[in-house]
Write a structure and sequence with these properties.
single chain; mainly alpha; Multidrug-efflux Transporter Regulator, Chain: A, Domain 2; two-stranded antiparallel ribbon; globular; DNA-bd_dom_put_sf; DNA-binding transcriptional MerR regulator; MerR-type_HTH_dom; DNA-binding; MerR_fam
């Protein structure tokens, strides 16, 4: 790890995050404090990965509060690879480009039949979440907005801002479900957040 350590200047150059913001994010627990060597602080791959995640979440419209809640779900022991997985889960869903799930999975050596089955699960559950959230917006959110004098444009803006929060919520729920499934498969007791 010693060879991977960066000074604050090197970290800001590598990530594009200002020194002031690095310190602010550390004070909010979004990134760990620097590693101390004497009077100097150094930053490792974990800091880089967590800063990249924070920047990505910001780029998708997450508020600081939503970022804090998202990052709280990532264990302090998470490796840079674990954090990169969060980025990979987040990025394809929130970008405007088309995602070729069967093609991407086939490229990983998964049979076309299995890849198509995975894509169909994603599509079915994506539609279900969208339909259920749309119903909540229609029956619970819009009446509240209308009563408060908000316009349809303000509702559209709310829905736009809801998208990254929905994605973060889905990623968190999926990770918890996978962890529970793996624990059951391994015969270990299931730990539920609480």
């Amino acid at each position: 790890m010693e060879g991977d350590l960066l000074t604050l200047d090197q970290l800001t150059e590598r990530t594009g995050v200002s020194a002031r913001n690095v310190r602010f994010y550390a004070s909010r627990g979004l990134v760990p404090a620097p590693v101390r060597r004497g009077r100097s602080g150094y930053y490792g791959p974990d800091h880089v990965a967590r800063l990249e995640l924070v920047r990505e979440l910001q780029g998708h419209g997450f508020t600081l509060s939503a970022i804090e809640k998202y990052v709280e779900q990532i264990p302090a022991t998470a490796t840079p690879s674990d954090i990169a997985r969060h980025l990979s889960l987040l990025a394809p869903v929130t970008t405007d480009r088309d995602v070729d799930v069967p093609g991407d999975l086939s490229g990983m050596g998964i049979s076309p039949e299995a890849a198509q089955a995975v894509a169909e699960v994603y599509a079915a559950h994506g539609r279900q979440v969208a339909e259920e959230l749309s119903e909540i917006v229609r029956t619970k959110v819009w009446p509240q907005f209308r009563e408060a004098g908000y316009t349809a444009e303000q509702l559209r803006e709310f829905i736009h801002r809801l998208k990254p929060l929905t994605i973060a919520g889905l990623v968190t729920a999926y990770e918890q479900a996978i962890d529970e499934s793996q624990a059951q498969y391994d015969g270990k007791p299931v730990r539920r957040p609480g």
